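User: Can you help me understand a structure? I only have the sequence.
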Amino acid sequence: MKYDFDTVIDRRGSFCFKYDGLKEVYGREDLIPLWIADMDFQVAPQIKAAMQKRLDHGIFGYNQRLPIYYETVINWAKKRYGYEPQEDWIMTSPGIMPAVNLAVMQLTEPGDSVLIQTPVYQPFFSAVTAHNRKLVTNSLIPENGHYEIDFEDFEKKLKEVKLFILCSPHNPVGRRWTDEELFRMGTLCRQYNVPIISDEIHGDLVYNGAGSRSIAALEGMLDNLIVCFSPAKSFNLAGLATAIIIAKNPALREPLDTMLENLHLYMGNTFGIIALTAAYRESEDWLEELICYLQGNRDFLVDYIQTELPQLKVNTPEATYLAWIDFSNLGLTDDEVQKLLIEKAGLVLEPGIKYGIEGSGFQRLNFGCPRKTLSLALERMKKAIKEL
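Assistant: Let's start by predicting it. Here is the structure, written out as tokens:
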């Protein structure tokens, strides 16, 4: 490989929540952290060089997005996701979750219902309930080694909601929804006049050559859709607080745009702008190597669990660097599994119960790390379970 993903880099003391937050959250600093969804790899050298050049300039005033920025975003969406947004459809947010929260606030009223598909990324829950909206869930169905959509229930729930928050690819279950699934969801949402906000932050990280795919690329979807993407996951830039929001329909775009301006969230982070531009214009070869390395980690993890930890079950993720592992055969409660992993294995994973009641018995593991780290973590897990 041209790029190095094997070197273990000490992140402690870098104001890094994944490592520096261990003491505050778990009371220990000696744990292997496989919880927070960022990666333990240095960013692409092209990104580092662009940021260093901007740093050397030495002046960090208010930002203006130049035409090259919009050109970069448009070209990336066209090449990687299959659709071509226009410049006036593009908004910028400090993250996808701020945009999701604003969509809930601006496109629904207190007391309205909002639909999510559980188990799902836990901030989706608070994005609904914190604004006095009613949470409605469409539980995903574990079947044939992965999760599928209960479309009968999905359509039933659409009759009572005002907004649908889609996670695509899905965190934590690792599904890359097929075109057929996306089109069916989108068509039903149009039928019942329910706008979609699609969180596609993991959209670049798709395995087995399947390629990225946005619901925005499918015929007839754009008029009922807000789509969100970011280099945060795919280029490991979460700390730079930069996300792209695309909305073709003015009825969906203008309420968000107004609130982004009113809250002064539109100007963005200087280094986020620079990093996004360098990532999407200069670093695609780094991304392709990363995907290959992560797929190797995924396959190593799945094979290890199947051969060395048969008490556990894991679906093979089609996308993301997150594994959804079923510990239920151990006969332990969620708290007992968490205690086992922390106290006996020295590991921190994300408890599945955070993602909804459907996540009980599961843990989410982040394999976006050097293989040496992943191997050590799995060996510790095996030893702890063997001693039960």
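Now, to help you interpret it: The domain at 17-34+284-386 is CATH 3.90.1150.10 (Aspartate Aminotransferase, domain 1). DSSP finds 13 helices and 15 strands in the chain. Let me know which part you'd like to focus on.
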